[in-house]
Amino acid sequence: MIETYNEHDMTIEFEYWWLLILPLFFILGWIAARVDIKQIVAESTTLPAAYFKGLNFLISDQHKKAIDAFSEAIHANSDSLELHFAMGSLFRRTGETDRAINMHLNLLEKKELTKNQKEAVKAELAADYLKAGLYDRAEELFKNLTNKRYRQPALYSLLEIYVREREWLMAIDTAIELERLSGVPFRIAIAQYHCELAMNAMIDQQADLARLHLANALDANKKCIRANVLLGDLEVQSNNHVAAIAHWKHIEFQDPEYLGLVATKLLQSFSALGKSDEGIALLKTYLENYKLASIMTALYEATVAAEGADSAATLARNELIRKPSLQTLDQLLQARAMSEHSTKSKSDQDIQLMQQTVRNAIGNRAAYHCNQCGFRAKQYHWQCPACNAWESLPSEPSEAISRQMTITK
What we know:
Blueprint: H1 2-45, H2 49-59, H3 63-76, H4 81-93, H5 97-108, H6 115-132, H7 135-143, H8 148-164, H9 168-182, H10 187-203, H11 207-220, H12 225-237, H13 241-249, H14 251-254, H15 263-272, H16 276-290, H17 293-307, H18 309-322, H19 326-338, H20 346-362, E1 368-369, E2 376-377
């Protein structure tokens, strides 16, 4: 009984203590809020009214009027670096990089700037040079930014410069440092940089150096499809088709969606070994398992060449039943038109008419669309030509068809 009473007594005492503390917390919060409000009001009163006019024009995408408003604000408060930086950013956005460069160069001539302020101006000037395409000047400034605040943004900009100028070794070093500082992985990009170096070595007929870069690519990213594609190409150059086939078959274990990129290559190497039937059988297995349009195209063409139009028509019809596609329908009609059993009759003319209609419907619809910027490409690119993103295009082109087709036996 004594213990129970003591516990109850302690609980009551604990609750009363909190009743005394809570008002104190409320008072401290109220004081802090008042201080923040006063600071915000004080800071806002130092900004010219033209600054807020400029912001309104920016929101409504009236860039010319925004420039005029910011110019007025700078005239009223010429000591504000923030206003100058806002104006410089606006100049870059509107393509007036020469005005941004001149403005920031003039700022650097001011003797009263502190070291940190000069560093900030140099960062803005480097951004101007980058936007203007003056990569040498931009690179020099970005490299010399010592303030930790600007280190990561500077490295990102340096990486952009090295990629644009195809300085792949510098890009690799920069990406590795960015990984260390930011914790953001750059494995895909680093592997692609090694592949670019391998491509250069292959052009220079330096096979051993190319293999070294491709090994580094796979070390950076074990799922680098491009590395195995290029390794297979290297073996073909050495007339080693067995090794080439082994590299290309390994893609199935990296990502089978990319097998279509090497389907024709596989058939050619099997043919060089006198094993065309084995190559066709392998592609049929891939088609059965993964249902890729690019494999169907390679298999259809190989079947026409090896077994004739009737076999190709059977292949296309079976695939069409399983997976409706205008492209496969076009292949079926093409095979029917080529069939040696076909006669020059109205039926044959109807087939040709249907084939032409299907091809008109397909048109230029089949394309690779970048999942970063939406760029549309007729051929596969490892790097998007528009936004420079790596491996951002899908492995298969897409058909922009408005409605699904239904095919029955």
